[in-house]
Design goal:
This protein is mostly helical. 70% of the residues lie in helices and 0% in strands. It has ten helices and no strands. Helix 6 packs across helix 7 and helix 8 packs across helix 10. The longest helix is centred in the last third of the chain and has 25 residues. The two termini are 29 Å apart.
Length: 162
């Protein structure tokens, strides 16, 4: 996950960890997140929604199957429609980051973090390159928020050998 944030958000692992360690309210209000969100080319994302929707429609069902079978996540969507509509709603300012967090709060932290690189990779074969990069950056930014919320709500338990 940290490597994904480094690659697509240009954040060092330490910078990613610092953001992920913030309480959700501070993360949502942080200048760094504001910079990441502000750097998204929303015009390009809006223009490329039809192509992105096709990529999501093709690639989300196998991703959902992986979530269910490999990670054991319950309540996996049965179609990519809601995700596509949600992304459209976010780009049209009809959805919020807090609603995104609310929709994903039941996913255990480790499973959510493990799924992030695979979700961002859904856009790997998108062309042209600028559209691919913008969608990967957008999805990685949204996942940063989800990962921060998961860490706040469900801290990882570390077993200590005594």
């Amino acid at each position: 996950m940290l490597q994904t944030f480094s690659q697509f958000l240009n954040l060092s692992p330490d910078a990613s960890e610092a953001l992920l360690s913030l309480p959700l309210t501070e993360l949502l209000d942080s200048p760094d997140l504001d910079r990441l969100l502000g750097s998204l080319d929303t015009d390009l994302l809006r223009e490329s929604l039809p192509a992105a929707g096709a990529v999501l429609a093709q690639n989300l069902p196998p991703f959902y199957n992986w979530l269910e079978t490999e990670l054991g996540i319950a309540n996996v969507p049965d179609s990519p429609d809601h995700t596509t509509k949600w992304v459209v709603g976010l780009l049209k300012n009809q959805e919020s980051l807090t609603r995104l967090v609310e929709l994903h709060k039941s996913i255990p932290r480790q499973k959510l973090e493990r799924s992030i690189p695979r979700l961002v990779a859904i856009f790997e074969d998108v062309r042209p390159l600028n559209i691919k990069q913008e969608w990967q950056k957008a999805i990685a930014t949204l996942c940063l928020v989800l990962a921060g919320a998961a860490r706040e709500n469900r801290p990882s338990r570390t077993l200590v050998n005594i």
